[in-house]
Fold this sequence. Notes:
Blueprint (H helix, E strand, L loop, with lengths): L1 H18 L5 H4 L2 H15 L7 H20 L4 H5 L3 H24 L7 H13 L2 H10 L4 H22 L3 H5 L8 H7 L3 H9 L4 H26 L5 H16 L2 H4 L4 H19 L2 H32 L4 H13 L4 H7 L6 H29 L1
Amino acid sequence: MNSLFTTTFILLFPFxxxxxxxxxxxxxxxxxxxxCYLAGILAGNAGKLPIDHALAQQLAYxxxxxxxxLLLFTTDIRAWLKQAPDSLKGFAAAVFSGVLTAVIxxxxxxxxxxxxxxxxxxxxxxxxGGTPNMNAIGLMLHAPEELFALLNxxxxxxxxxxxxxxxxxxxxxxxxxxxxxxxxxxREQNQQAASFHHSLFGRAKPGxxxxxxxxxxxxxxxxxxxxxxxxxxxEKPAWLFLLxxxxxxLASFWKRIRHMPGSYQAGEYAILAFCTAIGLSSNLRELxxxxxxxxxxxxxxxxxxxxxxxxxxxxxxIDRDTTLITLTAALYGPAFIxxxxxxxxxxxxxxxxxxxxxxxxxxxNFVGVMVYQLLDYAG
Length: 379
């Protein structure tokens, strides 16, 4: 009974979060990811529901193994590298800003955080790619379930405030110290934005979803097989997820896989299942005990990243719209690009922003692990 209820809850609640709950005004601010974490935490700590916590942890692991390749299959590295140089420089500035700020903050908060290196690595992952990267890095580094929930809750708060700024005042504020882009160059850069956005986020048929899931399972199985052949054990999550990332990126170079309908949507759903499962595994007392330090740490890293990125883009003479869209791609991922582009009244940057966000997914795990190794070596 416990196993059946746990499995059903993890698999079905993301559907409710996407279709119904996130439409309510009170809950819309949290978004599907926040709702899944919150529902999991409440259900897992209610004490009266038949929750199998060990199974929830196993299902979380499985969901990420499937979800990560589904998202990475859509990455188009070659197209991203062909984008205007300012897009590449703007994204590089965002990654550098996130890494430097996280490393400095980890030393500042070392006395108040239980695992500063792990926390910094997970935040670097989410501020380079997105939530899938944060989750993968956390599993690689054996982070406690409570840290996933705390970082996500903190990111929702600080990220929500920043996003409101991006779609309201950012264009005016950044326009004070950054040049306005060359509209003609941007138009050439984004001739296929509408069709690309539709192919990435449009609906897929059941057969197409099944094919995408099958390829993700095959990639995960191949990664596990390589890890086992190299180490004689599967208890190597860091190697498993790094190999999974690498193989998924390699697969994305095949056009038929990269443009496979349903891959991105299925990957998002798997990530929501992961969030639900992690919530079920979280201990509410641990969340309350360590929430303040993680909240302050997240706010510090996000604020520092935004300010340093703006300064670097000013020094590099990157235009306002490219600066804001690369920041959005790094901090939020592809799904938020159209909203910010609309706020800037510049749809010509949508393609560049989405490609940059997908590239962030591909790079996030490697950057996060690098930050952890750097802090671990230094400390």
